[in-house]
Amino acid sequence: MGSYDCQNGVTPDLRYIPLSYSHADSQATALRLILTLFPHWEGPGNKVEFVRFTDGITNTLLKIINRKPGLTEEEIDNDAVLMRAYGMGTEVLIDRERTESPGLTQLLAEKPPSTLFSRAAVLLPPLLARFKNGLPIPLYSRETLRPLGPGNASGLRGVARKLGHWHAVLPNEGTGSSEWQATLGKQDEGISLIQPRRAGQSMWAVLQKWILALPVNTAEQRDRRLALQKELHWVLDQLDDGKGIGEDGLVFAHGDLLCANVIVLPSDESASTEDGIAPVTFIDYEYAVPAPAAFDIANHLAEWIGYDCDYNMIPTQSVRRQFMAEYAKSYCQHRGLDSSAEAEIVARLYDDVDRFRGIPGLYWGVWALIQAQISQIDFDYASYAELRLGEYWAWKREVDGSREAAGEEKSLREQRWSQLA
């Protein structure tokens, strides 16, 4: 199923379907799209059904199955498709010319060096096609990792291994549109733009672009944008030092590694790691961009809190060290480094992730402020923005010592982060 050539390990030009999904007429438009993609799903003996997922707060996600008589649930799921329809106005947040380019699609799905081809080795599931406002993606398994806790050792290790693989083998220079490359060259009245160590694509450039896109209709909004720009300059001075692993301190990061974007591969495809850890794959790479490895890891660990921001789920020091150890082992293996380098990488990453722990709050807090203005999805983005920005402010108060100087208690998130076990 799909457009991936298993023998040659290449993705041909992605098919384009000149149709749109409509939120107002969901089932009819989704059916028209899936029957265009799979005409053999039409007619007697086919029963197409739709399941709306609630995991996405950027896009509408539909699982589409063909419940043919005589098939088991596993067989039905093996042919399932996840249809992702973009939220209104998300082109402000996502450079789709870059994230859906055939070159990036091939890069993420191609066969890694020195491995036999299998789905377990593929860095991302191949795309099936594009339509006007979304993508259909093969859904290999109905098992997605939910917010993880210390008890889910298998899930923890599977994600760490795959992320280490990603960061080790994917080149981080990327390609992009002229608009993306020119982001830092824009001029905006009252805004002093950042100048990262490396020009062009990076998570720093993304955050700069998002701050420029914040609403400025009121004096309060203008003041807030200026304040957030000031914070961006501050964190860049603190963290953009090129000392992380990878080329010039950057790797090609997934950028949005919440647990719903982690898929456990089916047992017949993934059987068989020596220690019984089920391999996983990642989906939804529309926020993928060069970034410090510590940002990608800190972002994944931050996502354990879920959309309801349950800070009791933040991983403790011992859990983070387990993650770093598994990541470093995978990174060294796929990078061709001697295993003696693992301990040094664990130590560097542990400290670096600690330094970056507040940045996902700033990143997704700014994102949510924009979504609060443009999104039609039923989600309280404004409240979510305040929670995520609150994580950033709590982290900064630890860094600059102002919380301790004021004699105030640590936030719950910071308490959990500093807990040993």
Automatic annotation (TrEMBL):
EC class name: transferase
Molecular function via GO: ethanolamine kinase activity
Family matches, as CDD domains: ETNK_euk
GO cellular component: cytoplasm
InterPro entries registered for this protein in UniProt: Kinase-like_dom_sf
Pfam families: Choline_kinase
Annotated metabolic or biological route of this protein: Phospholipid metabolism; phosphatidylethanolamine biosynthesis; phosphatidylethanolamine from ethanolamine: step 1/3
GO biological processes: phosphatidylethanolamine biosynthetic process
EC number(s) on file: 2.7.1.82
PANTHER family reported in the protein's UniProt record: CHOLINE/ETHANOALAMINE KINASE, ETHANOLAMINE KINASE
Sequence similarity: Belongs to the choline/ethanolamine kinase family.
Protein name per its UniProtKB record: ethanolamine kinase
Organism: Penicillium chermesinum
